[in-house]
């Protein structure tokens, strides 16, 4: 089978891109052909199909809108890509005509490619599968957060709440554009063109079903992870580890406050891009307080990143938002690490309290302190680590994900063939 894989980045910047390259690798190992469709960037992984990619908003050096110079051309591009881009629609039709895929698998496109990728693929007669990694279909901000608290007002009171609170980037203009685009997408029934929605968690599946999406079209297929090196025997480490994005919704602030309360022999390592606004703020706080047991090591990748995970005692996912099955949990399980996670969103689907880690109340530093002290027991670390690895194999193995995904792909392509044969008759 030939699959057109659509994502607005063709380089790793977070969990969705890790998934993109992992599933591409797995599909190709199983004999399928994958054709990427994305946006030009100087950070992109090289591919022969880049000649079909579309130009970004602003320059090829910019990853985020904040990095772009706000010229009239950029503003127009931003609005077009948020609402509906005929340029992108033309481009995806061109790559479909040239490469002749059997199916289109869409990951992220919001604000960068626009949902015209959906309509363009459908107009070419192809089945369209959309995988969701956040809540963009329901929340203008994508994360149900407002002032560091869970907010679902847009579901209960309408999008006027988003405009009143300036939820999108703290900007009325950005909020208006986002709300307008969501209204347009609903008006033109763009999501009726999706044959199947894939959610990584049951939590997201239930949210969609409870808010008007056809439950028959929604399939929960948990994500998976792939090691880049030999895993080896489990190691009982000496430090707690947070790794991932350092942003407000990730709750790293709660970890810092917890380790501030702990004796100095309890160590915390924070691994991730610490040049973010939240990263800089937390590093400054740690320096001002003289907290020598907390160390920021910056962004790491490959074997260096894996080495830091291997040598951790346990890992943290202290999210304060509805985290949607983060890769960091699976990467922790892969190295037989217990996980201490917030009791929120999809995280209870990953961490079974007292089995492969512990759940704690979001934002509760004192609760974290109690659990960290519990983890002094080496026997507990070993047993929970074994349980983490077994949970990975039972629920989040690459083969399980691949088989479930291909079942959907095969059903959709079979339906497409039946429609074609009926037309010929």
In spatial order, strands of the major sheet run 2-1-3-4-7-8
How would you name the CATH homologous superfamily of the largest domain?
Glycogen Phosphorylase B
Q: Quick check: average pLDDT?
A: 93
- What composes the largest sheet? 6 strands, parallel
Run of helices and strands: EHEHHEHEEEHHHEHEEHEHEHEHEHEHHH
Which structural category do the helix and sheet elements fall into? alpha/beta
Instruction: Calculate the terminal CA-CA distance, rounded to whole Å.
Output: 25 Å
Q: Note the overall shape.
A: globular
Integer count of domains = 2
Instruction: Give the number of DSSP strands.
Output: 14
Kindly report the CATH topology of the largest domain: Rossmann fold
Strand percentage lies at 5-15%
Rounded radius of gyration (Å): 22 Å
Query: Helical percent range?
Result: 40-55%
Number of helices: 16
- Indicate the CATH class of the largest domain: Alpha Beta
- At CATH level 2, the architecture of the largest domain is 3-Layer(aba) Sandwich
Unreliable segments (pLDDT under 50, ≥5 consecutive)? none
Task: Please give a structural write-up.
43% of the residues lie in helices and 13% in strands. With 425 residues, it is an alpha/beta fold. It folds into two domains: 2-131 and 189-224 and 398-424, Rossmann fold; 239-395, Rossmann fold (3-Layer(aba) Sandwich), CATH 3.40.50. The strands form three sheets. Strands 2-1-3-4-7-8 form a six-stranded parallel sheet, sandwiched between helices. It has a six-stranded parallel sheet with strand order 11-10-9-12-13-14, sandwiched between helices. Strands 5-6 form a two-stranded antiparallel ribbon.
């Amino acid at each position: 089978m030939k699959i057109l894989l659509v994502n607005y980045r063709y380089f790793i910047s977070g969990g969705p891109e890790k998934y993109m390259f992992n599933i591409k690798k797995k599909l190709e190992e199983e004999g399928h052909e994958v054709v990427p469709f994305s946006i030009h960037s100087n950070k992109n992984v090289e591919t022969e199909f880049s000649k079909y990619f579309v130009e970004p908003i602003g320059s090829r050096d910019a990853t985020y809108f904040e990095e772009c110079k706000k010229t009239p051309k950029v503003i127009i591009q931003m609005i077009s890509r948020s609402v509906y881009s005929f340029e992108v629609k033309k481009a995806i039709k061109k790559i479909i005509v040239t490469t002749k895929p059997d199916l289109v698998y869409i990951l992220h496109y919001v604000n960068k490619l626009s949902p015209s990728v959906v309509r363009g693929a459908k107009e070419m007669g192809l089945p369209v599968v959309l995988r969701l990694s956040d809540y963009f279909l329901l929340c203008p901000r994508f994360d149900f957060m407002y002032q560091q608290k869970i907010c679902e007002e847009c579901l209960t009171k309408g999008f006027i709440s988003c405009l009143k609170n300036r939820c999108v980037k703290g900007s009325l203009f950005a909020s208006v554009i986002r709300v307008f685009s969501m209204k347009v997408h609903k008006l033109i029934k763009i999501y009726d063109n999706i044959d199947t929605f894939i959610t990584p968690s049951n939590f997201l599946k239930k949210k969609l079903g409870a808010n008007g999406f056809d439950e028959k079209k929604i399939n929960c297929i948990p994500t998976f992870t792939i090691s880049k090196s030999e895993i080896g025997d489990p190691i009982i480490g000496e430090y707690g580890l947070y790794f991932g994005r350092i942003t407000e919704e990730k709750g790293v602030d709660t970890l810092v406050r917890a380790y501030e309360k702990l004796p100095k022999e309890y160590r915390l390592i924070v691994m991730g891009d610490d040049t973010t606004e939240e990263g800089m703020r937390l590093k400054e706080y740690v320096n001002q307080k003289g907290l020598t047991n907390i160390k920021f090591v910056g962004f790491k990748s490959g074997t260096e990143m894996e080495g830091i995970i291997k040598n951790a005692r346990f890992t943290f996912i202290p999210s304060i938002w509805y985290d949607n099955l983060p890769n960091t949990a699976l990467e922790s399980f892969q190295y037989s690490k217990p996980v201490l996670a917030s009791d929120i969103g999809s995280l209870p689907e990953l961490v079974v309290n007292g089995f492969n880690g512990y759940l704690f109340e979001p934002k509760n530093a004192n609760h974290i302190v109690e659990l960290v002290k519990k983890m002094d027991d080496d026997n507990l670390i070993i047993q929970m680590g074994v349980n983490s690895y077994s949970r990975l194999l039972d629920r989040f193995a690459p083969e399980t994900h691949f088989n479930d995904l291909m079942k959907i792909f095969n059903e959709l392509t079979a339906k497409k063939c039946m429609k074609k044969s009926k037309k010929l008759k």
